[in-house]
Write a structure and sequence with these properties.
Blueprint lengths: L21 H7 L6 E7 L2 E7 L12 H15 L9 H10 L1
Antiparallel strand pairs: 1-2
Length: 97
């Protein structure tokens, strides 16, 4: 078994509740009502801060969409974009292609 840094003992309550150590909450900016993801990994449980999104917005956070977002941001930083002064000019520019 790997050598682990000493930690803080956490007791599991009657409803399987745990109290997060103050230092951990402070370090990750966690407060009452925030969510954690619990992952079971071989011989341990890993808790990670998470943010839930409405189901109607989940498409934005898919790996495919996030790859497109990164690609668009790289193009923007490299100057590979055009600006239009109106929606009408934008549509006309799209039709030229």
């Amino acid at each position: 078994m790997p050598v682990r840094k000493p930690g803080v003992a956490i007791r599991i309550g009657g409803k399987r509740q745990i109290t997060l150590p103050r230092e951990a909450a402070r370090r990750f900016g966690l407060a009452a009502g925030d969510e954690l993801e619990a992952r079971i990994l071989d011989d341990r449980i890993e808790l990670r801060p998470m943010v839930s999104v409405p189901k109607s917005q989940a498409w934005f956070w898919t790996p495919e969409w996030q790859a497109k977002e990164r690609e668009a941001e790289e193009a923007r930083k490299a100057g590979r974009y055009r600006q239009f002064s109106s929606a009408k000019k934008l549509v006309a520019g799209l039709r030229k292609k």
